[in-house]
Design brief:
The protein has strands at about 1-5, 5, 20-30, 30-40, 55-60, 80, 90, 95. It is mainly beta. The strands form 4 sheets. A two-stranded antiparallel ribbon has the order 1-2. A two-stranded antiparallel ribbon has the order 3-4. It is flat, with a radius of gyration of 19 Å. The protein starts with a strand and ends with a strand. About 0% of the residues are buried.
Length: about 100
């Protein structure tokens, strides 16, 4: 949808599968520009459909982090699935305890 150089993308009744990276790319004869964002759709706790069995999905992905030595760091990701999935952390392919 376009309105005076403002563009919109509407998604009605978002579902978990709508989660992901969205990108708007604009072009003309002089070049191009883009804007990128991430949509995370969370399960509705009031929705009986959300209690159905489903395979695990990462709805918020890990992000690259740069940190100074001797500083704390926290990795975050969000997952959904029924029954509730278990997450295991690995570093360079080795399971962390």
């Amino acid at each position: 949808m376009q309105d005076n150089n403002k563009y919109s993308l509407y998604i009605n009744k978002c579902e978990l599968s709508d989660s992901g990276e969205y990108r708007a790319v604009v072009r003309n004869t002089y070049g191009q520009a883009q804007s990128i964002c991430r949509l995370n759709v969370n399960e509705s706790s009031n929705d009986s459909v959300s209690k159905k069995k489903s395979s695990p999905k990462c709805v918020e992905l890990l992000k690259d982090i740069r940190v100074l030595e001797n500083h704390d760091v926290c990795f975050k990701c969000r997952v959904v699935g029924q029954p509730e999935p278990m997450l295991t952390w690995y570093k360079n392919g080795v399971k962390l305890d």
